[in-house]
Amino acid sequence: MSLTRRDFVRAAGGSLVLASWPRRAFAHPDHASLSEAHHRPARRVIEFSTRVAPEDMRADLRAAHRDPGPLSGLEADRLGRLMAGRLRKAVRLRDREGLERPLMLVGHEFEGEGKWLWLHYLVACGPADDLSGFELAHTLFFDIAPTQTNTVLLHHGGRRESLVLTRDRPRAEISVPDPRLR
After folding, report:
1. What is the DSSP letter of 174?
2. Model confidence, pTM
């Protein structure tokens, strides 16, 4: 049985407890982003779509800049510029030579009456047909949520690879595709 905030206050017997209870704990207990990424060798890019909670993006933008207000009310170009800046710092792809590849935000959309925010972006990967030995870092929201987990389902080389990135493991090397799995 889970205890709601109101039930907790009633059980504790007062509003003093409510005032001292951290509001952030009630936003949502599990901080996670989920990305699907497709390597497109012919286009020399990796296409990403990342699903995040809008309140996490707002908290991240608030920590990095000033409070932007409700995200759904921001002008699309301004919101895009703010999010692109955050993504460039948080999502990094390094090739085998250690060169960082550029990221470009393509767009964003709200889903489910604003319950989810989808970010669509591209990372240039050059002429590589094989991403093995490349390193992906995905540190979005690590500054605001210590338990943040960023999961990337990467389609490359004819297979899928799941990369789970946390504060303790913020980057992962992309593995060599097994030719038997093609």
Report:
1. P
2. 0.76
